[in-house]
Fold:
Amino acid sequence: MIRTAGSRSLSPGIFRHASYTMLAAVLASCSSTTYQANVQGPGQLHGHAPAPEFLNDPIEPLNRGIWAVNKGLVVGIVQPTAKGYRKIAPPPVRESIANFRRNLTYPGRLINNSLQGRWKGVGDETTRFLANTTAGGLGFFDVATKWSIPKSDADFSQTFGTWGWKPSTFVVLPLGGPSDDRNLTGYVFDSAAEPWNYADEYSVIGPVTAFNKLSDRSEDAARLLLSEKDSYSLGKYAWTYAAKDGEPDWQLHGPIDRPTLETLGAVQLTLADKEFPLNSREMSVKIPSTGRKLKFNCWMQKDTAPIVYISPGLSSHRLSLATVWAAERLYQNGFSVVSTSSVFQPEFMEQASSADLPAYPKVDSRDLHVALTEIDKLMEKKYPGRLGKKALMGFSMGGFLGIRIAADEKSAPSDLIRFDRYVAINPPVDLQYGSQHLDGYTRAPLAWPEDQRQARLNNAAHKAAKSLTVKSDPNAVPPFEGVESKYLIGLTFRLALRDVIYSTQQRHNMGVLQTPITPWKREESYREIMNFSFSDYFQKFAVPYYHQKGISMTELRREGKLTTHTAALRNQKKVRVITNTNDFLLRPQDASWLKSTFGSSRVTLFPYGGHMGAMFAPPVTQAIVGSVQDLK
Structure:
């Protein structure tokens, strides 16, 4: 009897997109050119965002329901179980089991190489099977690779692709993750080709070896699922191009743009310990202004140590890669660490914001200050005597708000926490300037000829997918021309704005959006929202909202500039700034303002890295840790 649900009941698919975090972020524009033509509103005038083509999603409510169940299983069962499994099965054991599984699935590769007419692949896979089955001890040892016999992976989805079947519909598999119509059909045929499905006594081999394969990916998958407000949409957009057939056109058809190209270097951030993020303790505090509980993560040293509170960039979660990367580096150097979500992240907005939408730094920074105070009170209670000096470290927008808190330190209520150090990494100085730049980046592909634009957009997305799924030289220049790198960066921030608008309008619908806001069917509202630029958000949402509260547009713009607080900041000796001279969010004069305001000894400028794109570089990492080293 064929067991079609056997080996792949825990398909690697649910983890596959965990490797594409940055890819998903830069691709998730969730707009189609056909739909944009039907959307009327501010976005059509100011923020029209060209976008790659993604898979259709006609069964979105069903897909989202399955995704929610999968997420619960991964976070609640698979990840903790895999963590325990890795402790009893060291890497050599897991590698041998993976080798054994691959050797057993030889029939599927034999069939598909044959169906595709890849006769060399047939020969290579047959030779590998014979070598590993005999000299490799039934396949537990991969002697074929040591003997330089190449692999020729092939499955039925790939075969269907060579026959001309192009995926068209996004599908989420129960217990399986992101897929599509072609891949789903291929999955059924692949299962039929797996030998353990034909013998009841060996049926356990499938799920056991599949779980072994998943165990090394579970930490990344769980962190991604927890850190993204809508991990479903990211999985869908990443899958479209991660699973795309063939190779993209790698040729550069225009000049490169160094600042945005270097910003893409953020994908090189890696954790020394993949278990570090989820080894934290998750806690929550009640926020006085909302009465709701805000979650945070902490990593505590065993003995008394300085503690660093991390406030991440625009719309970033407390478990986002950059946040936990910084937390790990600080923890390794003897600091206790607390991470919170960004003031612009839906979690913070829905639990801790006193306003219905963030846009007024005076309120946003106070909300952050209040939340950090409540967290600090709880930490002092939970860990008496173990909290040393305290620092606030903010990245990008988190750095801007951190400096804003520092400017108000003398006038802030006495019951709010006072920090011994404020560190701002790549903070913008003028929010209006930075947002206008980002809006321009999103529209960068409009410079391409109209008859080439869609194909080049799709190719840029395909290149992003391929670049993130293959090992490359960390010193190599990413293969993107200037328009492509600007576009990918612009859409990263536009995605963050999408989540801000969706969350604010779900809680306080101002009637600006024409499409309904529903949790299980978001595609249409996402498409409309993606046509809103940062300028639109300010003009159509922020200005009317705060006008009702007696706050003018002039005041909003004034508070959006750190230069407004030059006098207070000049006397604030506890601030440290680390940034890059080619950060596209900075005006030409901003570096000079930073040095003249804080003093050259407290401002570290690097001539490379764009916006937060060089943190992995040893000098930058050392500067970040060094900015709080004297608190020990």
